[in-house]
Amino acid sequence: MATAGDAPTVSIVFPALNEEAAIAGCVSQALNALARAGLRGEVLVVDNASSDRTAEKARLRGARVVTEPRRGYGAACLRGLKEAQGEFVVLLDADATYPVEMVAEFVRAMREQGADIVLGNRFGGRMERGSMPLLNRYIGNPILSGMTRLLFRARLKDIHCGMRGIRRDRVAALDLRMPGMELATEMVVKALDQRMTVRELRIPYRPRLGPSKLRPLRDAWRHAEYMLVFSPSLLFLWPGILLFLLGTALQLFLVSGPRTFLFRTWDIHTNLAGLAAALTGSTLLALGLVASTFAWSIGMRFRHSPVARAVARGGDRPVRIAAVLLALAGASLWIAVIARWVASGFGSLAAVPYLSLATTLLASGLELLVAAFLVHVIRLKALSDRRA
After folding, report:
1. What's the chain look like in SS3?
2. For 311-360, how does the pLDDT look when each residue is reduced to its tens digit (9 = 90+)?
3. What is the pTM for the complete model shown?
């Protein structure tokens, strides 16, 4: 352990909620690991408002204990990162599942090999029988890690591993905020976005001591939702643009009536399909504009998404201009159709293709106006936060 005059090299941080069954052993193993490696260090337990003797047992074994009253894995980790004094911080779950004896290898990867963040890879090590439910092992974790590889072009196999190291001087740049399990995803996504070096080390994984707090479906969805929100190009912008252009093109193609193409006659049903596609596209585009701006406001820089980056930087003015032009075009076409109906003495009117196109333009313009307003609100909030 570090003396009062020495800053610790390593902070081993255990976020803990009702882990009295395992915490004493975890702390003892951590102290032994530091001693064997010859590292100045501290063991910090973040008691997440436990209702058992977690904090008491941790203190008795020699850990420094702080209390985080806000419940949540992310809240406990954030408190631990704030309180840690070491140059390198290693986070571990306090349930005896992770090999705390490997702390020195995590530190070596950061100190000597240039890694900013080091993740454990449970799937490349020796996963013991009963350590991970089959659903998590073969479906949940592989899918979520696969999403990370797809959305953020990262060659990582286990982004939700509860054993991870981070250089303390990188923490502020990440601006971590998530209070729940999705903090694990936030840390990796923001590090990749900022071109930090993220490495994996193969580790063993053991059965936990004490009851699990994990809620597989809910927690998996929170991780997936976080990644999708911060992938606005793939989720919203590109699908929205393509659907809007395709749907509008179909309507323009049929605006003068049925057309023969590819040995088939395309008529009103195809026109309505184009209307549905265009309106769906404009909705996705509006969501993409808001998601891009929100992500930008909390520090995401879209390393692999030039479209989202351009949208986020552009602000609400270009969106307002485009929205007003679309809405005016749609309203004008509606007025022209109504004027034609009035001129005909309110008789029969065969103008569905024109009304379909007019509806597309008017509704899309109004949707984008709402999106522009939300973009403006998000930017004002971000500006006020920076000034505060």
Report:
1. CCCCCCCCCEEEEEEECCCCCCHHHHHHHHHHHHHHHCCCEEEEEEECCCCCCHHHHHHHCCCEEEECCCCCHHHHHHHHHHHCCCCEEEECCCCCCCCHHHHHHHHHHHHCCCCCEEEEEHHHCCECCCCCCHHHHHHHHHHHHHHHHHHHCCCCCCCCCCCEEEEHHHHHHHCCCCCCCCHHHHHHHHHHHCCCCEEEEECCECCCCCCCCCCHHHHHHHHHHHHHHCCHHHHHHHHHHHHHHHHHHHHHHHCCCCEEECCEEECHHHHHHHHHHHHHHHHHHHHHHHHHHHHHHCCCCCCCCHHHHHHHHHCCHHHHHHHHHHHHHHHHHHHHHHHHHHHCCCCCCCCHHHHHHHHHHHHHHHHHHHHHHHHHHHHHHHHHHHHC
2. 767 777 888 999 999 999 999 999 998 888 888 777 666 788 888 999 99
3. 0.73
